[in-house]
Amino acid sequence: MTKIPYKLPIIQKDLLVLEQNLKKMVGAKHPILYAAAEHLFSAGGKRIRPTIILLVALSTTKDINILPEHKRLAEIIEIIHTASLVHDDVVDECQIRRGVNTVHSTFSTKIAILAGDFLFAQSSWYLANLNNLEVVKTISKVITDFAEGEIRQGLTNFDETISIDNYIDKSFYKTASLIAAGCKGAAMLSETTTNIQNNFYLYGKHLGLAFQIIDDILDIIGSRSSLGKPAGSDLKNGNLTAPLIFALEEQPKLHYLINREFQKQDDINTAIEMIKDSHGIQKAYDLAQEHIQASLQALKRTNNNQAQEALAYISNYIINRLC
C-alpha cells in the first residue's frame, strides 16, 4: 500500500485496523463474491479517503478523540469508493487496476457487477447502522452522484467540444462528491455546527477536484508502474480530461485524433506527446492549485488550528504527487 506522507502517527493504528476490517465487513457468504472482494482489497491503495475522514474526526472532536462511528464511516467511504471502481472498470473495459488484474478480467463481467452491487449494499447496511439520519442522507446521495457522473462521462466520450466547466462538473460527481460528503459526515458525527459541517464539505469538494485533476495529469505523464495501469487509459476510453482540453487550444491536430477515436496504433502516444508539447499540463496543474487553495480557505473558516495543521498534509500530498 502506498504510504501517505502525513506526520500524525496517532491514526496509523486506526488505518491498520481499517485494513483488517474491510475484508471482514464484506463478509460475503458466497465464495466467489468473497474472493472478488478480497481480490479488490488485497490490491491495496492509498486509502486517502479514510485518512481524510479520520483526520477530520481528529480535528472536530473534543479531546482530539476519534469515535467508533468515525472509524466505521471511514470504512464505509472506502467500501463505497471500491464498489465504484469495480463498476467503472467494467464500463471502461480496464484490464489492470493498482497493478493487478481487475475483477471482471479475473472472474467475469457478471461477477464484477454483482461484487460492486454487493459492496454498495454492504456499505448501505453499515451506514444505516450508524443511526444518524442526517449522515445517511449525506452519504447516500453520493451513490446517485456516481451514476450522474458515469452518465455524463458516457455522453461526452470523444467529444472535443467538452468545456472545462463540463469536466469539473463530471469530476465532482465521480470523485469529489464522496470526499466532500465524507468530510461533512465526519463533522456531523462530531456534532459540530452546520456552518463548520458546510466548510468541511467545501474542503472535501475542492480537495477531491484537485485530486482528480492531478490523477488526470498523471494519466498523461505517468508510467505503467507508477499508475498501476497503462498510461493514456483515459484517452483511449474517450475520457477527455483537463490536460487535453487545455492542449486543444494549441494543438488543432488533436481534434483529428479524437474524431477517429485514437483508432490507429500510435494515436495515443502521438496525443500524449502533443499534450506534453503544449501548456495543457501546466494549465491543468494551475487549476489543481486553485482548488487546493480553495480547500485550504474553507479549512481556515473552521477556526480549528488542529484541522488546518493536520489536513494541510493531505493537500500537500495531493499537489505533490507529480514530484
Topology record:
Blueprint: H1 12-26, H2 31-42, H3 48-60, H4 68-92, E1 96-97, E2 100-101, H5 103-106, H6 109-128, H7 133-155, H8 164-189, H9 194-221, H10 224-227, H11 233-236, H12 242-247, H13 253-259, H14 267-276, H15 280-300, H16 305-319
Antiparallel strand pairs: 1-2
Helix pairs in contact: 1-2, 1-4, 2-6, 3-4, 3-8, 3-16, 4-6, 4-7, 4-8, 6-7, 7-8, 8-9, 9-15, 15-16
Provide a quick synopsis of the model.
With 323 residues, the chain is mainly α.
Descriptive account of the structure:
The chain contains 16 helices and two strands. With 323 residues, it is an all-alpha fold. The chain has a single domain (9-322), classed as Farnesyl Diphosphate Synthase (Orthogonal Bundle). The chain has a two-stranded antiparallel sheet with strand order 1-2. It is globular and about 60 Å long. The model has no long low-confidence stretch (mean pLDDT 86).
List its salient traits:
323 residues; mainly alpha; Farnesyl Diphosphate Synthase; two-stranded antiparallel sheet; 16 helices; 72% helix
Q: Distance between the terminal alpha carbons, to the nearest Å?
A: 19 Å
Q: Which radius of gyration do the C-alpha atoms yield? A: 19 Å
**Can you give the mean pLDDT?**
86
Which runs of at least 5 residues are low in confidence (pLDDT < 50)? none
CATH class: Mainly Alpha
> What general form does the structure show?
globular
Query: Beta-strand level of the residues, as a percent range?
Result: under 5%
Tally of separate helices: 16
